[in-house]
Automatic annotation (TrEMBL):
Keyword terms of this UniProt record: Folate biosynthesis, Lyase
Protein family (similarity comment): Belongs to the DHNA family.
Protein name per Swiss-Prot or TrEMBL: 7,8-dihydroneopterin aldolase
Matching NCBIfam families: folB, folB_dom
Reaction equation(s) it catalyzes: 7,8-dihydroneopterin = 6-hydroxymethyl-7,8-dihydropterin + glycolaldehyde
Domain Dihydroneopterin aldolase/epimerase, chain residue ranges per copy: 8-120
């Protein structure tokens, strides 16, 4: 079955968390910014006007934030994978793209952002 072109997008979810390979990152924490796009067929919800026929984006945002805020890991790649699995746990979701931004990453040169993006499907 082809992936729907419909999607729900959450952009700029801000989470304070303690991920990183350095001790000071684990101790002090820092800001992470998460973008999520979930592909799913939105026509059942559009035709029925029933929230039960889609993914509740408010609840999804809370789940994503909880997944990022808890259980520190070394790599933002791991954070992205964790978020992807949370989104794919919703049965209607066929595919997800997750970007984890680490704008306060400990890099010795001036930069605007560091991010990883992954895409996962059922």
């Amino acid at each position: 079955m082809p992936v729907s072109k419909d999607r729900i997008t959450l952009t700029g979810l801000r989470v304070q968390a303690n991920h990183g390979v350095f001790d000071f990152e684990r101790a002090n924490g820092q800001l992470f910014v998460i973008d999520v796009t979930a592909w799913l067929d939105l026509s059942p919800a559009a035709l029925s006007d029933d929230l039960a026929n889609t993914v509740h984006y408010g609840e999804l945002a809370e789940e994503v934030v909880a997944a990022v805020a808890n259980d520190p890991v070394d790599l933002i790649e791991t954070v992205a994978e964790r978020v992807a699995q949370v989104v794919l746990a919703h049965a209607p979701v066929q595919k997800v793209e997750v970007t984890v931004h680490k704008p306060q990453a400990p890099i010795s040169v001036e930069f605007a952002d560091v991010a990883v993006t992954i895409e996962r499907s059922r």
